[in-house]
Amino acid sequence: MTGNHYGRLKADAASIALAAKLLHAGELVAFPTETVYGLGAAALNSEAVVKIFEAKQRPFFDPLIVHIGDATWANELAEVSALGQSLMQAFWPGPLTLVLPRKKIVPDLVTSGLSDVALRVPAHLVAQELLHVSGIAIAAPSANLFGQLSPTRAEHVERFLGEKVALILDGGPCFVGVESTIVKVHERTLEILRPGAITMAQLQGITGVNVTLVTKAPVIASGMLDSHYAPRTPLYLKEKLTQADADTKTAALFFQQPAYNLAASFQISRVLSPSGKVSEAAQNLFSFLHELDTAGCQRILAEHVSEDGIGLAIMNRLHKAAVKD
Ligand code: TXA
Ligand code: MG
Questions:
Q1: Rounded CA gap, 163 and 5, in Å?
Q2: Using CA atoms, how far apart are residues 156 and 165, in angstroms rounded to an integer?
Q3: 77 ligand 1 Cβ < 6 A
Q4: Atom 12 of ligand 1, nearest CA residue
Q5: Residues 162-208: pLDDT tens digits?
């Protein structure tokens, strides 16, 4: 990068004001959202947005989510239908991204030339403040290298993108832990392009329309690629880990508390939620995968989690992180 480099700063009024200034100057700023950390640039400034693709080594066919301060900002960027409006009212701020017909003001680079734009109002206070202090829409993918583990702590961003961003706002660990639910809004139906914290049942309950989960389709969201969210250590998924899986070269990711002897038979292990709560498992998912990935093991074995609620999103990420046969 060309300009100044401020490293990782604790998010407070001063660092947020600096971040806003850097965004206006066309620089990259990483910031916390409730889901994962985002790598942000001024959304309407193509020269700034191109830096996101360079820093992430992200292919240009993969469009970005535009973060906005509140639902009223959406009208400048997209055509908002009544169905879209009802979702905004129910779920924003929060981990729901809406894919809506774009307006011309949105650069092609942001949408990869698609006729829709993805919008979301993040619930994290630091993200909220950054949006309102800067007063501009922020294009931001997850702040990781393309295809790799998502960042749920500022340290993850620092490790993988450190020199490539002007400033990393440190707002502590993300409290949801997996990326937003992405929903394409049609006239009378909804399509989930990527599962997340907002569930199909919630979407159906609020709108009363038909909601489908897209599993196989032309790739229009990178979260739809078969391989994504992957650690560098080969990861394999198993329904349940047993003593037969254990050896000293293997890292284990348990869903719930295993028997002590079992955990101790692996080189290293982590338990996503001792009591089997999916929300806690989601918070820990990427952080624990980062830890297991850097432990020097030959493989990571991850156990299935319950597919209730956000558990569906966790399994979606684990399937994509896993080695394909
Ligand atoms: O929780 C999140 O959504 C996080 C935080 C930072 O907000 N962001 C995130 O961004 O996960 P990213 O780029 O890692 O994933 C966004 C996904 C991509 O797979 C992208 O292809 C899809 O959103 N997307 C963006 N614009 C789209 C569009 N116009 N139509 C369909 N999919 C779109
Ligand atoms: Mg991502």
A1: 8
A2: 13
A3: no
A4: 141
A5: 999 999 999 999 999 999 999 999 999 999 999 999 999 999 999 99
Least Cα distance to 292 among 316, 312, 318 occurs for: 318
Q: Report pLDDT digits (tens) over 21-60.
A: 999 999 999 999 999 999 999 999 999 999 999 999 999 9
Would you say the pTM of this structure is higher than 0.70?
yes
For residues 14, 17, 21 and 27, what is the CA-based torsion angle, rounded to 10 degrees? Answer: 80
* Phi/psi of residue 252, nearest 5 degrees: -115, 135
Phi, psi of 206 (to 5 degrees): -75, -40
The ligand 1 atom nearest the CA atom of 62: 21
Which protein residue has the closest C-alpha to ligand 1 atom 10? 141
Please list the alpha-helical segments (H only) found in the chain. Answer: 13-24, 46-56, 74-77, 82-91, 108-111, 125-134, 154-161, 200-207, 260-264, 278-293, 311-321
Instruction: Say which ligand is closest to the CA of 35.
Output: 1
